[in-house]
Amino acid sequence: MIASVRTALRWLLAIVFALAGYFHIVSPEPFLVITPDWVPMAEQVILLTGIAEFLGAAGLMVPALRGPAGWGLAAYTVCVFPANINHAIIDLTNGTGLPLAYHLPRLLFQPVILWACMWAAELIDWPFGRRRP
User: Which is a Gene Ontology cellular component entry for this protein (predicted)?
Assistant: First the structure.
């Protein structure tokens, strides 16, 4: 049962990250708007994040690459958190964007996404039991 859930989550993450990667590459404008000003070469960073999402999605599906892909996607999740915070600040301070009801769950869910990347990649078993050698 747990293996089936893990496989389903792996597929879901692969699809979501591949779609996000696609949009980062073909339509970077919305991502440029929310990228913090302190990020250098924002256009190139957004292109590289799209490529990283594609590679991570593909890596999740290849058993030999699953671990590195999980670590990479977990790190990616941490790295984009400032853009998510910036997005919330932009929307909430100018009153024309998405409401707090969107941003608060999104920000609070970020650790869950990080966990999901690591669990789907079989890097951790928590909370479902200890990892067997």
Answer: membrane
